[in-house]
Amino acid sequence: MINIPKGTKDVLPYDSYKWQFIEKTAREVAKNFGAKEIRTPTFEHTEVFLRGVGQTTDIVNKEMYTFTDKGGRSITLKPEGTAGVARSFVENGMHSGVLPAKLFYLTQCFRYERPQAGRLREFHQFGVEFLGATNPNIDAETILLAKTFLDKVGIKNVTLYLNSIGCKECRAKYKKVLSEYLRSNIDSMCELCKDRLEKNPLRILDCKNENCKKINEKAPVILDYLCDDCKEHFESVQNLLTLAGVEYKINPYIVRGLDYYNKTVFEFVSNNIGAQGTVCGGGRYDGLIAELGGSDVAGIGFAVGIERILMLLENLNVEIPNDSQIEYYVAPMGEKESEKAFEIVSMLRQKGISADLDHMNRGIKAQFKYADKIGAKKVIVIGSDELEKGIFKVKEMSTGSEEFLSIDELVK
Ligand code: ATP
Ligand code: MG
Question: Which ligand places an atom closest to the C-alpha of 118?
């Protein structure tokens, strides 16, 4: 037997309705907010992620599936959705189209990580990218979209953490003060953060190491260094969220430590799925499109991890609607009846009604068991009597109630 690769999962037939429900909800909510779907390739030139995700991130440093293809190009399986969308935006000249470009995607992502609950090597994201608008109302709208999606799939108990990491100017001032403070604590920091101190001190703020966390607690806070413009933007976003009835907590440790991320950043975090509690992360990235060779176009977006959503729903015992049930199972009692069953099933299917019949020459009792297993809502029994009269017994599986109908009545 050949096993599935580490960190990957099959979605089995009795579970796929859950995925379909999440995907359907994502599409509906995105449409409700005016977003259109974009699909980009599973792999890109590695350069897209080096520039579009950033050299100082965990993703680029240790998590990418990168290989040289037979033509000698460096190719990477997408570790996230934003960079590919940004590449496509630039390549297709979308900046001269309708702005803002309101885009969403559902995609698999690949990261070489240590597999554990909620952390896989192939996982899936629902993401949204709104490109071309600087108005704070689109920040609030992006967050509201994520929140609406979480509500609609049945997740109520997540906390929205909100922060602003300012613009280049305020961040430069802040970085200086932060670096000074961190340098004076360098001895008790983890090795990774010692390295981060030179490359990107902001990232230290979301380090999970206990010592680093303690140091961070007393660190200066970015919000005290925001310029007037960034302050005003952040206040507007908060006002709009309050108007929309969205609760949030300000958390100065939420950072997206890349130079082209700016202003609003946010995360939705749950306490119900252990360490991997972040189900959604997002923020504004006004420098990204320029970084990928486009013009100066603003952008904001988020990504939700679908596996984490499913995990959370399971932990919360939220029942996911299952509409993969079949409407009719037709049970013939003999060979002759079997032909009639085939005819009836074909007619029902043609009318767009889902139906199935016996393929295994089972006896009537075993057929009822099977109908129950496949979740058929109704069973039609065909015996010689029924065949003769053209009237069929239709049994409702959930209640046991019976009805007698002709074929015409059935198909109606
Ligand atoms: P974490 O801190 O948990 O590693 P991250 O900051 O790397 O998360 P993002 O890059 O912001 O995550 O991705 C957005 C979302 O995708 C996450 O909030 C999470 O729900 C999901 N996600 C990220 N990495 C994985 C993974 N390896 N397996 C499953 N889901 C993931
Ligand atoms: Mg990660």
Answer: 1
Say how far apart CA 407 and CA 411 lie, in whole Å.
6
The continuous run of DSSP H or E covering 56 comes out as none
Sequence-ordered strand ranges (E) for 51-157? 66-68, 74-77, 101-110, 122-131
Q: What are phi and psi of 36, to 5 degrees?
A: -115, 150
Angle at 30 between CA 29 and CA 36, to 5 degrees: 155
How far away, in angstroms, is 305 Cα from ligand 1 center?
A: 6
- Give pTM, 2 decimals: 0.93
Location of structure tokens 């009792």: 365
Distance 404 CA to ligand 2 centre (A): 59
Closest-lying ligand 1 atom to the alpha carbon of residue 268: 18
- C-alpha 62/C-alpha 130 separation (Å) is 28
Answer yes or no: is the C-beta of 308 below 6 A from any ligand 1 atom: yes
Confidence at residue 404, expressed as pLDDT on a 0 to 100 scale: 92
What is the rounded CA–CA span in Å between residue 79 and residue 53?
9
Surface-to-core class of residue 38, CB atoms within 10 Å of its CB (0-12 exposed, 13-18 middle, 19+ buried) = buried
State the distance from the centre of ligand 1 to the C-alpha of 321, rounded, in angstroms: 26
pLDDT, tens digit (0-9, with 9 covering 90-100), for 75-132: 999 999 999 999 999 999 999 999 999 999 999 999 999 999 999 999 999 999 999 9
Distance (Å) from CA 123 to ligand 1 centroid: 9
The closest alpha carbon to 248, from 264, 229, 232, belongs to: 264
